[in-house]
Design a protein that fits this description.
The longest helix has 20 residues, at 210-229. The protein is built from nine helices and seven strands; from the N terminus they run ααβαββαβαβααβααβ. It is of the alpha/beta class.
Amino acid sequence: MKKPDNTAFEQEQYDLAYPDGIENHFWNLSRNNIILRKLKNKKQSKILDIGCGRGITVEYLRNEGFDCYGCDISSGKAISKNISQYLSFKQDAFDLDIDLRKSIDTILLLDVVEHLEDVETFINKLLHSFHNLSYLIITVPARQELWSNYDVFYGHYLRYNNNTLKSQLIKCDLSITKTSYFFKALYLPSLLLMILKKKRSLIINAPKTMFQIIAHKALAMFFFLEEWILPNKLIGTSLLAEIVINNNKEN
């Protein structure tokens, strides 16, 4: 199991979280659709997905016409050969080529900060290393009452709510422009599992058959519409924050 001071996934965690075909899982499809909607006015941006895993979101955004790249400190494997040239594995974002860092104006931290013990130091380093950063999207697992064996296994420090996420970003002199919970319909079933003291499965099964893939796409559309239509403050199992940055710090 991953040690608390090491944010990189170990092989067992990586294999369980990123099996082949995982890009067709409703959870990834839903999150990608939501991220795409948030980026609708960012077609001219250069985007970096930090902690990109196998590049699921990078591939999705590039297919939608975005100039998106990814890096991950884990020893990873691209979700497809088409995307491998845009991904950097065993690569700390702060050690990327300085010219690339200067060209990035949008950063995605998708389910990353919950793995960090010292979020403030990480975010401050980010602001100083990416001089032209103007927009940041953060997603995190939500609601501490849903804490389970899943969070322990995958090395989470915290499940967030609006207040805990805002309080960490305020320490970095950042103000959240907008927050919204998503996967709202999953909240009550997840809470019931905790009340019944049931363990969550650690295996994320990718859909394999055409029927399964179609079912996952339908479910993904439901969760996309749910996040779009229902009130942002209605709680769910994940939380998204948008931050507009006036970054005048020098590298």
